[in-house]
Structure formats: C-alpha cells, structure tokens
Amino acid sequence: MSQTIGGGAAPAGLYVHVPFCLRKCNYCDFVSLPIGRAGAAGLVRPYFAAVRREADRRAPELAGRAIEGVYFGGGTPTTIEPRELAGLLEHLSARYAVEPRAEVTVEANPGTVDAARLGDLRAAGFNRLSLGAQAFQDRLLARLGRAHDAAAIKAAVAAARAAGFTDLNLDLIYGLPGQTADDWRATLRAAVALEPEHLAAYALKVEPGTPFHRDQAAGRLDLPGEDAEAAMYEDAREAMAVAGYEHYELSNWARPGSRSRHNLLYWRNRDYAGLGAAAWSHLGARRRGNVGDVAGYIHLVEAGADPVGEAEELDPRRAAGEAAFLALRLIEGLSLAEFAAEHGRSLEDLFPGAIGRATASGLAAREGDRLRLTGRGLLLANQVFQEFVD
Ligand code: SF4
Fold first, then answer.
1. Using CA positions, which residue lies closest to atom 2 of ligand 1?
2. Four-CA torsion 91, 92, 95, 100, nearest 10 degrees
3. Nearest atom (ligand 1) to Cα of 109
C-alpha cells in the first residue's frame, strides 16, 4: 500500500527503543533491563553504538520522507545520560529528514529527572516529555513497583517546566490492584491540576511472565473488576472533558493543538521505522520486529547482520483491516472515502456486513462519510476491531 499526500511521500516517524530502567515494575512486560543488574550498565554504550549503526543501515528505507515524529521510548530513556540521548538524536537528524518542527518525544520516569538533566535534553532538541505518572497514591505506586512516589511526579513536572518543556504528557493507569474509585478520581484531579498538555489513561493489562501474573495465578491480585474498570474509564472521560481536554483517541486526551503528532502517525497507519532491541517497524504492508534480547541485538548489529527477529508482509486485506481498526481508535473515526481511495476497495467490499453489524449493535455510528465508535463502543472497542481481523 502506498501512502501519498498531495502527490508527495507521506510523512513518517522514527521510534527508538531504550531498554534500560531503574528497576522492573511488577506489571511490565516491555523489553527493559534494570540498570543496576549485573552487566546491564556495561551494555549502554555498545547499545547506543549499535542503534546508530542500525539507523545508518535503515536510513535508505525512509529516504526523502519527512520525519514528523521522533520518539525515544522504553524502557526509561532518562536512566541514560542526556549526552548519550542527545548524541543519538543528532545522529538521526543527520541521516533522516527530521522536520525542523518535528515532535521529538522522550519518555521519562519521575524518579530519573531533574531540571539540569531535562534542560540538557531540551537543549538537544527534545521538545516533548512523556512522564510515566501512573497514579498519585504512594501505596498504589509501591504496589506497581514504580521507582517513584507521588511527590516525585509533581517535582518532575516542575522540573520539566523549569527546563522549558511546553509539551508535556502524563501517562496514567487504572484498574490497579487495590485501587478504589476514589483513588482514581483523586489521581485524575491531581493529574489535571498539574496542567499537562496531554494525558493518556490505559487500563492495566496483566501480562504473562510478570509478577502481577504470578500474583493473579496465586489469587493475590485484588483487581477492581470489569465494571469498576469501565466506570473508571467513564470517570476519566468526564474529568478530562470538564478540564478542557479533547478526547481524540481511545486512551488519549490533549489540549487543543497538543495532540501527539508521532502517535497520530501510528493511528493513521503511516510508516515508521523502529530502531533498537524489540522495536517494530511499519513500512507499507511490511512489519518487522527486532530481536528482543539486548545483548543479542548488539551482537547482531556489531557483526554487520540485520537484527530483525520477525518479519511479515501483510496481504492487502489484512493491511486494510489493520488500517481500519487503527483509524477507529481515533474519536473522529474513519473516513470511508479516504479508506477506499487508499486501499482501492471500500470497507464494505473488503469486510461485508461489518459496518452494519457494528452500527446495529450500537457500538459504532455512521455519520455521512465517517464511521466512528459510540460511547459504548469506546468501552467495547475490541468487539468492533474484531470485525476487521481475520
Ligand atoms: S518504568 Fe516502564 S518500561 Fe521500565 S519497568 Fe516500569 S513500566 Fe516497564
């Protein structure tokens, strides 16, 4: 599938995975090494050298494409010295056509930042900071295994503002073990009171292989339950709306003008290259995931090999289905005309009856050219997405 806008190549994004954290959170299945673990700190320099080399290798794939978003995620990029992150960003800017006004995000853990470190990152060209706040109750943060308390979140926001960050995201999680409705409402109030430009709220997922998964198997994970979780989502929608945030994606809210351009590339099914261990790339119908083992990744790149672990080429129908459910994550929904123009066939033609079933169930609504999720559909989005997955 080729994606063009006005005859030119569509904008694209770059994702860099930084697989180091202060320590491992109890719910986390991302590829990340606690920096204090034996040998982990010694991998940092070789890892960044390998990412530079991978960036050189992959640069032709996005030759001539305007890079609208660069995202350093993880992991916790801010466990790494700012000069290492700055050096990598400079390297990428020399090899890819990063737009002068590109959104350049760095994820941070509140326990790992101060005004001086953030000032260095801001000066290096990072213009958006995404802080993993998650909750504002110390007992819940401790239960999650987070390396910070609630006071550290407030201090990190103040440090970010002092460092000149004017585009700040806070990530929150709901449906936590031991979390009450009042806890969640207090978290929403505390988050909004810090006046970030952007907020994301995700439901906790208990992933295999995590301490939470083991706790759940042993009957020791007191989750609030599905109904309470749905009520928490409704609370978030209400609190954000009252505070003037636009709900623009299933789990994301922004002040007017502050929607994440990088994340919009994902939901609009645009191309992006992922660099680093476990990073995924999306290039037309091609999907590619790098190996997740950090030392293995370094070894492959150092040997001059491609660090890819998995790759597949989606057939046109699967690619179109993926584009459809990604677009439906956006509150504005999907333009049926744009979809047909992009994929050469209408949504109805590719997925007969899907629109009718989704609208008849009340989970989606059709308004002129657009198909979008209803309020109930936002809660049961996966049921709609299933229509577009074989
Ligand atoms: S800080 Fe983020 S990436 Fe690191 S262990 Fe915790 S949840 Fe995982």
1. 75
2. -110
3. 1
Q: Which atom of ligand 1 is nearest to the CA of 107?
A: 2
CATH class of this structure's domain 317-388:
mainly alpha
For the chain, what are the domain ranges? 7-267, 317-388
Nearest residue (CA) to ligand 1, atom 7: 28
CATH 3.40.50.1820 fits 7-267, yes or no: no
Mutate to test the pocket of ligand 1, among 16, 20, 21 (most ligand atoms within 8 A of CB): 21
Taking a C-beta distance cutoff of 8 angstroms, is the pair 241, 233 a contact?
no
Q: Is 125 left (phi over 0), alpha (psi -120 to 50) or beta?
A: left
Tokens 């320590």, located at residue: 23
Which residues form ligand 1's pocket by a CB distance below 6 Å?
21, 24-25, 28, 30, 32, 74-76, 109, 132
Tens digit of each residue's pLDDT, the chain (390 residues): 334 333 358 899 999 999 999 999 999 999 999 998 888 999 999 999 999 999 999 999 999 999 999 999 999 999 999 999 999 999 999 999 999 999 999 999 998 899 999 999 999 999 999 999 999 999 999 999 999 999 999 999 999 999 999 999 999 999 999 999 999 999 999 999 999 999 999 999 999 999 999 999 999 999 999 999 999 999 999 999 999 999 999 999 999 999 999 999 999 999 999 999 999 999 999 999 999 999 999 999 999 999 999 999 999 999 999 999 999 999 999 999 999 999 999 999 999 999 999 999 999 999 999 999 999 999 999 999 999 997
3-state helix, strand, coil split of the chain in percent (to 5) is 45, 25, 30
Q: What is the pTM of this model?
A: 0.95
**Distance from the alpha carbon of residue 41 to the mean position of ligand 1, in angstroms:** 16
> Is the distance from CB of 74 to CB of 19 less than 8 angstroms?
yes
Atom of ligand 1 nearest to the CA of 21: 4
